[in-house]
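Subgroup meeting minutes
Present: P.N., E.W., G.H.
Scribe: E.W.

1. P.N. recapped why we're keeping a running log of single-chain structure predictions: easier to compare across weeks, and new members can see raw inputs and outputs side by side.
2. G.H. added today's entry (196 aa).
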Amino acid sequence: MKFKIITFFCLIFFSLTSCKTQELPYHQIPDAPENYEAGNVLSRVIDGLGYRYYWATEGLTEENLNYVPKGDTRSMFGTIEHILALSNGILKTVKNKPIIRSDYQEVLTFDEIRRATLINLKEASDFLRGKDENDLAKMEITFQRGENKSTFPLWNLLNGQLADALYHTGQIVSFRRSAGNPINPEVNVFRGKTGS
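Output recorded in log:
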């Protein structure tokens, strides 16, 4: 009986430890797809965003998160929350689910937001991989507030949520540089790898 109890607690400890240390996606960009099918191209754009976001948010301090540039702007933390909402919209769009305003109301820690954003992007990228133009033509952006729905073509995802998330990820890079904590200088967005 004593052995079973010790074994049980060891299993719990190891499962909790592995969950916390599980590597987040986008430490580097995954290998490129084999062809330039429509879904693969869109997937690769999301992978580029994921890689940039991973390194833009890696190693941020509490002081960085509270940083607000001069003027009427969001804090760095507020910008990171906004990118989570954008990543949620990207994932819901590719899965043809409505984007519901109340989806964004949960209060999360920075680590939870970062993890959720990266997982949303990875899931959206994986879902798109291998899809052809006919599959993409069936995808729409749908915003829902109560019974009211507004629908837009997938094209709007490119100039909407995707472009906006890239823009705000760049803001984080700029904010953290201004706050005295620049990103790892070995990040290479062209190669999608960090280090030599």
